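Subject — a protein and its fold
Fields — amino acid sequence, structure tokens
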Amino acid sequence: MIIVSVILAAIAAAAVGGAMALADKLGFYLIIVFPIIGGTIIGFAAALPFLGRKSASAQPSNLGGGLADVVVRDNRPSALPLIVVAILGALIATAVYWAGQYLTYKEELVSIIQEEQTTVTRDEALEFISMFEQETYGTTGFPAFVQLYAEEGMSINRVTSSSDSGLLLQGGLAYAFWGVEFVMIAGFAIGAALRNARGKTAPQVATAS
């Protein structure tokens, strides 16, 4: 069951991360709402294989008659595996979201370069971008993109590098904010997984005949 939970959580997380990246690209990213909704979806997906499990069932122990001899069995999954699956889902969602952001960044830069110099090929544009990143940030690829993103800053109402409205978070504040977003996704994923997979129901007691 836990393997099914991992698979479902991973699928849901990939969809959540992709949806967040698309919403950001379209300028409709809600910094608090989306992590909460995304985390809840991931947690629910992780709990799907365990829905309907009873919190306790009681059966006679055959050691004697009466309620005192019943054995209570908890059919719910353990909390720790669910927490691990929820955190894994949050990591996948975050990775897919940032991968989408990075790909969008690359494509936009290539388009800008090719618009300014129509004879430049895609490979040449990518090489130019790598040279710029190495010279400016001492690294290339995704690490350089993250540094650029943090340097240019983001608005509290939408992740962006072009908006001049709202509170602009830059540098360490941007990194801290991204960390908080991940914690929100993981926290709501854990909460939804535990709530749906381990929700309490009234115990069923069977007495010895």
